[in-house]
Amino acid sequence: MQWLKQPEMYQGKTVAELRERINLDFSPEGLGNETAIERAVEYFLKDSLAVHHPQCVAHLHCPSLVVSQAAEVMINATNQSMDSWDQSPSATIIEIKLDRVAAYPSGVPARRRRCLHQRRHPEAT
């Protein structure tokens, strides 16, 4: 995708320029999938901050990995949620096991690691 190859971290448009440029047209007919994706690239990606850029210092999050993007696509396509046990039974167990692996070297006590998951389902821990 061309956006990934942009040399600048940000294209430098001002808020006023963005407001002027972005035109959302919600017609009953819609745009069609291809045009909708083209518009998303044009209005969103081109003027987004490229957090993957080597000169970008992560603010709240680091650049994502391809494997995590693929996982997000799978979650989105199947309409899953991590909000409650009934929406994520297997995902909750996977998260618990990953948390245990990640927390073990950090020294976080086991009782502290379990409190989040017990809110979902008491038998899931």
UniProtKB/TrEMBL annotation:
The keyword 4Fe-4S does not apply. SUPFAM superfamilies: PLP-dependent transferases. InterPro entries: PyrdxlP-dep_Trfase, PyrdxlP-dep_Trfase_major. Its EC number is 4.1.1.86. Keywords: Decarboxylase, Lyase. One of its GO terms (cellular component) is cytoplasm. One of its GO terms (molecular function) is diaminobutyrate decarboxylase activity. PANTHER family: CYSTEINE SULFINIC ACID DECARBOXYLASE, GLUTAMATE DECARBOXYLASE-RELATED. Belongs to the group II decarboxylase family. This is L-2,4-diaminobutyrate decarboxylase.
